[in-house]
Amino acid sequence: MTGRSRSEVESEIKETLGLVPHFLAQIPEEMLDAEWEIFKRIELGETLIPNKYKELMGVALHSETKCRYCTLFHTEAAKMFGATDEEIQEAVLYAKNSVGWSVYLNGSRQDYDQFAEELGQMKDYMAAKG
């Protein structure tokens, strides 16, 4: 906790977002400052991963978790950071495909060590091809 009061934190939230969303307003006062700092840094701030890509990951991830709040948030944030409808659809299709492979690999109990070895071989082969 950085020690700011609820009114100070909410003032900053309102200046940043135009309002204090209900989901932030309900956070207990002793946790609000810390939660807002994390939200601001990860969701809104520039990190090593550009915001557009973080939000596309969020769309894909929450398509699987089936959280409609998060799916809506990350879809709109992705658009705000420049993602096209086509990129959003691709992110969702990528998630569908990736989850499907996870189900298959885990469900058929593929040998992990063999999988890792073959992956290394594929990587080396593809890198050599250019």
TrEMBL record:
Please give the InterPro entries that the UniProt record associates with this protein. AhpD-like, AhpD_core, CMD-like
Show where the Carboxymuconolactone decarboxylase-like domain sits.
46-101
- Put simply, this protein is called Carboxymuconolactone decarboxylase family protein
Organism (species): Streptomyces niveus (Streptomyces spheroides)
